[in-house]
Amino acid sequence: MSERFDAVIVGGGIVGLSCAKSLTDQGARVAVIDRGRYQESASTGNAGMIVPSHIVPLSAPGVIAKGMKWLMNPESPLYIKPSADPAFMKWLWAFQRHCTQAHVDHGIPVLRDSILSSLRLLEDWCSLPGFEGAGLAKTGLLMLHHGEKARKENLELAEIADEAGLIVETLDEAGTRSLEPALKTDFTGSVLFKQDARVDPEGLLRAMDAHVRSLGVSIIDGNVRGLQKSGQKFVGVKTDDAVIQGDQLVIAAGSWTPKLTKGLGTKLLLQPAKGYSVTIPSAENGGVDTGMHMPCLVTDQKISITPMPGGIRFSGTLGLQGYDLSVDERRAGPIRRHAELYCGEEHVRPIPTWAGLRPASPDGLPFIGSLPGMDNVWVASGHGMLGVTLGPFTGRMIADMMGGTTPEMNPSAFRIDRFN
Ligand SMILES: Cc1cc2nc3c(=O)[nH]c(=O)nc-3n(C[C@H](O)[C@H](O)[C@H](O)COP(=O)(O)OP(=O)(O)OC[C@H]3O[C@@H](n4cnc5c(N)ncnc54)[C@H](O)[C@@H]3O)c2cc1C
Q1: Domains, the chain, ranges and CATH?
Q2: 204, exposed or middle or buried, with CB in 10 Å at 0-12, 13-18, 19+?
Q3: Which pTM does this prediction carry?
Q4: Mutate to test the pocket of ligand 1, among 219, 358, 394 (most ligand atoms within 8 A of CB)
């Protein structure tokens, strides 16, 4: 391929496509290279929640103690596979170092502002023709609790969110049911996060794909084998059968990003964090109608429920166990049983469990910025549980920084070398 691009993006998940959209909007000629977006990308089978409610970074005080308890239970939502891999040990070390109140205080305004900005951008994009399939609905989100621990956790979060200026409401059982009469989960109350929303993530990805193509972006199927450089400059991307040349490179390869930065001299602290989902189609698609319309998070079990245009999705679990995408049916059990509660065993049994890898940074904030030691390489990854939520924001930050425009937010919290 002899064509030369202003920007080459590796990775066609929600983050890579968001970068492509913002760069193209700024007039750049862009290529996106991906080896099969709908197969291994985390951006398709996820819970599709757009979550201003998630302003507290995952690395927070108390998380480790809770995690240790969960480790003993084969059905718990957290699993860490013991490993002596130095990259994994370094990641765990950095994670535990960030489980402090100081880090939470630092992370809350960063996440609040970036998430709200992303939501505004997503709304703009979803108002464009061709985005109907993205299924954006500004429903709000119910965080349900049943046991006392979950109730306390939810109320603490509601207080933090309220202090941060988000719109939240604490509801008892009757108040919750009046908002979502179709609930079958056991609960005694909930917190309503009014600004949260949901999408059909695969519908969004397909709409983004078609949209950026219509803007002239070249989407290239290819497995990136290596990155060519000359001194401190990236010059081209090598796939199995071509070299794609560009003036700038964006690495947005989700959980696989460290495999690419390594070749350019940076060991990125990022680990894949596996999650599962089960999606039951609606009656008109051969499944069942549940009557649910609001996304919900069951805090006691860390299971999310997302009604989407063509069905309903149940998701959860976080497994730090490398790049293994196989499904541990025991760990997926609580999610599948929750699906059965709403949809009936006969509708859930034939549906396979989907697995995806969240690209997790140790401090719960993404990596958005230039790659140290290189003049023209950018990283957009590490969004963990927030990739769909923060995709549009990330794309615009990258496009602004690459174009030499002052980005809307100070990018220092997202620096690639912040753990050095
Ligand atoms: C169960 C679950 C539920 C979730 N729920 C939510 C939610 O409700 N809200 C939310 O905001 N986020 C959620 N997430 C997180 C979200 O899905 C991810 O953060 C997001 O999808 C990451 O997007 P990405 O574009 O960075 O990576 P990906 O979508 O994984 O895309 C990376 C792409 O790069 C390609 N690639 C990698 N290496 C190469 C290479 N060498 N050559 C060519 N191509 C390559 C891959 O094939 C892939 O297509 C959830 C995740 C899971 C697993």
Answers
A1: 52-87+135-199+272-360 (3.30.9.10)
A2: buried
A3: 0.97
A4: 358
